[in-house]
Hints:
- By secondary structure, the chain is an alpha+beta fold.
- It contains 13 helices and 15 strands.
- It folds into 2 domains: 2-111, Alpha-Beta Plaits; 117-416, Rossmann fold (3-Layer(aba) Sandwich).
- The longest helix is centred in the first third of the chain and has 17 residues, at 2-18.
Amino acid sequence: MxxxxxxxxxxxxxxxxxxxxxxxxxxxxxxxxxxxHLKAYGIAYKVLKDDAEVxxxxxxxxxxxxxxxxxxxxxxxxxxxxxxxxISDSNAESIRRQLSNPDVNMDVVKLQKAAKIVxxxxxxxxxxxxxxxxxxxxxxxxxxxxxxxVYDEEILKGDLPKYDWLHLHHEDFTGQFGRNMHRQSxxxxxxxxxxxxxxxxxxxxxxxxxxxxxxKEFCAGGGYLFAMCSAAETLDIALAAEGVxxxxxxxxxxxxxxxxxxxxxxxxxxxxxxxxLESDNGYRGFSTFSDINSSAGRGYDQPGGFFxxxxxxxxxxxxxxMLTQNHxxxxxxxxxxxxxxxxxxxxxxxxxxxxxxxxxxYIYGESGRGQWTFYGGHDPEGLRGGGGFRNPTDLNLxxxxxxxxLILNNVLFPSARKKKRKT
Length: 423
């Protein structure tokens, strides 16, 4: 009997060693243990797309993700090179209890539905070579997050309400074709002129204003808007200048309203006010649009510093806490036609989430029932100093980019929009 009992104990010990604790959850860490931060967002989006739920663990190990364990999730992580850990029900509940502690700046946000993503881009109607460097197109493709494309015509037709999340990048909504020859080719300009004429506009600037207003209506109706670089600046300029000619003769054949500056209406804008338009250097010049841009007058600036993300309460300021999740809170600055936003031009109603020594870099606000985020600069990992700006960044070389993580935070944010906001 004693020998039989000893045998059973030995057998039980062997089985315990050979049989792992039942894993019911997959934890995708987003701290320094993550092998590919950017592709991890693609896993979270894929889980949502498959009608499963993702828990976003704010301020826990860099803003980690947790979801129910399935063979499919584990396979996707392995195939995409994303680090993950399998944990039990009790371990998952222990993490939730830790995050719910009122004395820690952490929380759990449930993501429930994959946002339908659309990117405003001239590649919809032509080659538009410069658009190959659009940071959002690059990172969505790299993270394997699906998206659709729209351009002026789709917005004029009223297609935006079909989507949840709209991205704008280095576009010019003032109708000045980027204000330099580096931005748009003759073919790009003709494509815009053709759309304008098709819809009865005499000038591209008039069409772009209608597009800008359509974007504003999309946001006010509950859509989420994310804009980078010159798109953020020119969108607000176009809205403020409604009914005022701010386009020089080199672009549309007639002159600027001499009283244009005094006629700007800053109540119509999303984020900016108290700004001055830059003088027109002509289409072959190299000019910025206004002094919204912290490097106005110098074109592609070469910043040499860093900007810092603010620390928000995960329990009380949930939205900015989500939008600033990162494994680093100090990020190297990067240039753009609109590099960053002059502090004096940012409205008090805008929430600053990241700033450098002399400018705001990353801001958020609400418009009607929708939300928007503006992010200064062209490419978080692009070449500094302007050289080679037509070359798209190879994100295989930057899988841990904290600057690109901010973009992907915005991609996931609409999935949590049903959570009550206290901001």
